[in-house]
Amino acid sequence: MKTKEIGVCGLAAAMALLTGCGPANAGQASDTTSKTSATQLTTNENGCVSRTFTESSVTTNGNLVTEHRRETRTNMDANGNILETSTSEYAQSYNVGDTGWKLPAESKSATKGKGGKEPAAAATDSFLGLKFGAIFETTNTLNVADEPSLLYTTFTPKKALAGFDDYYVYLTPKTHKVAKVFACAKNAVEPGSSWRRHYLIEALEKRYQTWAMLRSVWRPYYVFNVAPDRYVAVCLAGANDTYETVIEAGDENVLRLAADEQEQLREEARKNAAERRGQKVNAAAEAF
Questions:
Q1: pTM for the full model?
Q2: What is the Cα–Cα distance from 233 to 247, expressed in whole angstroms?
Q3: Whose CA is closest to 138, among 165, 180, 166, 177?
Q4: What is the per-residue burial (b if ≥16 Cβ within 10 Å, else e) of 71-106?
Q5: Averaged pLDDT, 162-178
Q6: Could you state, in order of their start, the residue ranges of all structural domains in the chain?
Q7: Whether the Cβ atoms of residue 152 and residue 140 lie closer than 8 Å to each other
Q8: Cα–Cα distance between 49 and 37 in angstroms, integer?
Q9: Which tens digit of pLDDT belongs to each residue from 243-260?
Q10: Closest to 238 in 3D by CA, of 10, 12, 8
């Protein structure tokens, strides 16, 4: 899967953190509007040009936040003639603070016992049924073009997400331990006509007991710091060239393990190459 991922590890370009998305700013009643625009040009081998113009705005009216994104894509041939034009829009409004839902109080039971709940750490050590750091049994893996220290394969979760098409698990190259998990939708999973906070964002906030942080001024891209060295990132629309909506969950510790394993594999490959060359030299010397 050659996708431009949306993870915290450098997959969203020119990100800017917008304040006003959490409880700390709920008391502010000032009305503000932030508008941005960006143009991206892509030229293929035949000289055809694809132009993407994106206009975005984030408006805060008291406790009501409205996000709007309009994207116009134009494809032109090498002579500048327009071949195709398409426009897509994304918008959502939601309340923050006193009129929005509040994070439930943390359970007093910190350990699992009879009739008790799972510890807080256990709630973040897996995603879509796959536990980070666990070995994923498979013989059908592919290399990740832009992440050479990882392998990936598809999987089917026990509980599929409505509107999502494909699921991927990224593994360490040597031991095949789970490092990242992706849920991808070819069409944007829209919030519907209620114009409330997107249900996926609200569901993840309830799942991890933390507020979403908006990390882009031109697209609905959010990050959840669910635990030390563990994260969830969501792009609701315009994630990459293949998928509109993408949810990614990853573990930084396992990603560091993947880098170490990749270096071990490279060292083993260098050692094997040197041994094979030595064998060829010795065989040729004996022949002479």
A1: 0.59
A2: 6
A3: 177
A4: beebbbeeeeeeeeeeeeebebbbebbeebeeeeee
A5: 93
A6: 130-262
A7: no
A8: 19
A9: 999 999 999 999 999 888
A10: 12
